[in-house]
Design goal:
about 80 residues; alpha+beta; 3-stranded antiparallel sheet; about 25% helix; globular
């Protein structure tokens, strides 16, 4: 489980939610290729919770940068 405290700005949070309503297939493929089997994101006030189910091969520490930019992702990052 990962948590993130968002900026207390309802307009920015609403924009984030709208942006993530529909995920591009390239992003979904990249997530699955990384070893993530399932991912759920919840928002409670300004605190976001991400719960991931992954394979044993999934690294427990994040990579500093993606190996290759993913088309349609924000700045090549997921």
């Amino acid at each position: 489980m990962l948590t993130l405290d968002l900026k207390d700005d309802p307009a920015l949070i609403a924009e984030y939610r709208r942006h993530h309503e529909k995920i591009w297939p390239e992003i979904t493929s990249s997530i699955k290729d990384a070893g993530i089997v399932d991912m759920e994101i919840y928002l409670l006030g300004t605190r976001m919770f991400m719960i991931m189910e992954s394979t044993r091969a999934f690294p427990s520490t994040p990579k500093p940068t993606p190996t290759a930019p993913i088309p349609k992702s924000v700045n090549g990052k997921i």
